[in-house]
Amino acid sequence: MTILSHYIHLIAQLARDELVTPAPPPCPDRLAASPFERPNQMTHAYTGGCACGAIRYEIASEPVFQNHCQCRDCQRKSGTGHGSYLTFARAGVKHSGNATLWDMLGDSGNVKTRAFCPACGSPVYMTFAAMPEIFTVHAASLDDPGRYKPQVVTYAVRGYEWDFLDPGLQKFEKMPPM
Ligand SMILES: [Zn+2]
Ligand SMILES: [Zn+2]
């Protein structure tokens, strides 16, 4: 077997493994035909975590900001053209597991603390020394990433042509004024 055919075989194997992984249960709110059937579940918590499950979070409130960010830091840590985030008020955020914390100085001059899983490496959340009242999670760390509704693109000045995002989204060269 050549190296290439071995590689293709591996990919096919992985794809099959993916297919047999049971899908998560459907979101209860999506099953409800009308809000009157589930009067206490008009909203439900945003839950998520890392790929291996060691880091978990639960957030009861709705996000205050949702963005794609094309800054160099987000490119480096995502491994592609941008990061995708939901930002919440920190009050009411519960998280568990021992994330590895890594401080970095952002383009804005503010310290961002990235929290990622030391076991599986997934980036999960970020906090900001200058804005301790907010808590940001990576969109794909959500149990249901379909709940992410990007509003804007930040640091578009750093974006690459190959990283094509919804042209309907408002773009900011850097961060919008807060
Ligand atoms: Zn993990
Ligand atoms: Zn960024």
Task: Tell me about this structure.
By secondary structure, the chain is of the alpha+beta class. The chain contains three helices and eleven strands; from the N terminus they run H-H-E-E-E-H-E-E-E-E-E-E-E-E. An eight-stranded mixed β-sheet has the order 6-7-8-9-4-3-10-11. The protein has a three-stranded antiparallel β-sheet with strand order 1-2-5, with no helix packed on it. Strand 1 and strand 2 (56-59) form a beta hairpin. The protein is globular and about 35 Å long. It binds zinc ion (ZN) (2 copies). One zinc ion is lined by residues 50-52, 54-55, 117, 119-120, 122.
**Fraction in helix:** 10-25%
Name the helix and strand elements from N-terminus to C-terminus, one letter apiece. HHEEEHEEEEEEEE
Shape, principal axes of CA atoms: globular
Percentage of residues in DSSP E strands: 25-35%
Bound molecules: zinc ion
Task: Outline the biggest β-sheet.
Answer: 8 strands, mixed
Q: What Rg, in angstroms, do the CA atoms define? A: 18 Å
Total number of beta strands:
11
Distance between the termini: 57 Å
What order do the strands of the largest sheet run in, or round the barrel if closed? 6-7-8-9-4-3-10-11
